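quick one before i forget lol
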Amino acid sequence: MTETVTFSIEKHVARLTLNNPEKHNALGRKELDALRSAVAEVAASDSVRVLVLTGEGDKTFCAGASLQELNAGEIRGDDYQDMTDAIADLAIPTVCAISGNVFGGGVELALSCDFRIGIEGTRMRVPAASIGLCYPVRGIERFVQRLGPGVAKRILVASEALSADEMLRIGFLDHLVMPAQLEQTVATYAAQLAGLAPLSVRAMKQIIGNVASGTHDREEAKRLAVLCEASEDLAEGFAALKEKRPPEFSGR
């Protein structure tokens, strides 16, 4: 990784941290490359079951792509979209811990994750329309698919600034906690996800994503369900229920 993006794996949980709070955790070429590399490693891993994405500092989770590097032509909008697509396309669940305000492309970065946990006092805004930009098309599609066209218009067309309570109300945030509770809440949530049956989690994430994007294939969904029904993990789940103990899933 780099000094501005750190990556670690502990047991079944991978953690990616944006570590450039002085620049509001904005993402330039080296940060985008580091994120893509880490996500590729996670995608290839047989042991990682959850990815947590967060940012250092308590002011800004992420301000999106580096405007300086965009203006200089060192990165393009497609570079940023490729990175968010890579996160969204992961088979495992992803959790975004929003430790501060979130602006511009940072909003889409959070939205590319499956779950978002934020803190009281957070603010969110995408200022593209206020500076004359059309937000990248793939990003607009993600806003519409995840939040619906009405909310997407508020965020992108009207460039509204939203409070943490409003972010929770519109479904951008799944959970809202006090700042001091964020780290423990995210750790507990990630551990809970990592303890679930991997085949079931992956199958249902894939089916839900396909339904939302209009690419649902019922026969493929049935195939995934049959794999879960024939798995060792289902037998383990039933055994654990009978023996009144926590299951120990293997992903097989």
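fyi The chain is about 50% helix and 15% strand.
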